[in-house]
Each structure stands twice: as structure tokens, then as C-alpha cells.
């Protein structure tokens, strides 16, 4: 889970969910074509995108405050996605 004041990203056994300003979008694993994530160029944000089976792209950006938190989120996210989505 990555959370800031306005947004959150949750990756778990059910799939991926984004919450942006109290609006939630849930993506169950069977409906996900792929998941992509990276730090922002500034190193202050986690950027995650989900590509739905129908090709639609959804993105959520969460601020890492303090900035060192991004260094905690990335390896954990890699491990969780590797466990639940080993093929990408």
C-alpha cells in the first residue's frame, strides 16, 4: 500500500486498486493485462499504471513523503507484484 493525502495504491490478492480524491477504481487480476510502475523523474512520487484487458490505461501517482519512503515502496511493490502477477 502506498498512500498520500489525496491518493492511494493497493496491490493485494484481489488485484490493484487506486483511490484518487475519494474515488476508487478496482482492477481484479483477471481483468488486468499489465501493471507498470516507476519513480517520477523528481524521485518524489510513485507512478503506477494499469492496462486493462480492453486496452484502457489507468494511472495513479502517490507522493512519497518523506522522499525515502519511495525507496521502501519500490522493493515491496516488486515483491508483491512478483507474487500475485509473476508473468507481468
What would you note in describing this structure?
The chain has one helix and seven strands; from the N terminus they run βββββββα. The protein is 19% helix and 49% strand. The protein has one helix at 68-84; strands at 2-3, 7-12, 15-20, 23-28, 32-39, 45-52, 57-63. Strand 6 (45-52) and strand 7 (57-63) form a beta hairpin. A four-stranded antiparallel sheet has the order 1-2-3-4. It has a three-stranded antiparallel sheet with strand order 5-6-7, with helices on one face. By secondary structure, it is of the alpha+beta class. The longest helix has 17 residues, at 68-84.
Question: Which helices and strands appear, and what pairs or packs with what?
Answer:
Blueprint lengths: L1 E2 L3 E6 L2 E6 L2 E6 L3 E8 L5 E8 L4 E7 L4 H17 L4
Antiparallel strand pairs: 1-2, 2-3, 3-4, 5-6, 6-7
Amino acid at each position: 500500500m502506498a498512500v498520500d493525502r489525496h491518493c492511494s495504491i493497493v496491490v493485494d490478492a484481489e488485484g490493484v486498486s487506486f483511490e484518487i480524491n475519494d474515488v476508487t477504481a478496482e482492477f481484479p487480476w483477471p481483468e488486468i493485462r499489465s501493471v507498470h510502475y516507476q519513480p517520477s523523474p523528481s524521485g518524489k512520487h510513485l507512478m503506477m499504471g494499469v492496462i486493462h484487458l480492453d486496452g484502457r490505461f489507468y494511472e495513479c501517482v502517490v507522493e512519497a513523503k518523506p522522499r525515502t519512503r519511495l525507496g521502501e515502496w519500490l522493493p515491496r511493490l516488486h515483491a508483491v507484484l512478483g507474487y500475485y502477477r509473476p508473468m507481468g
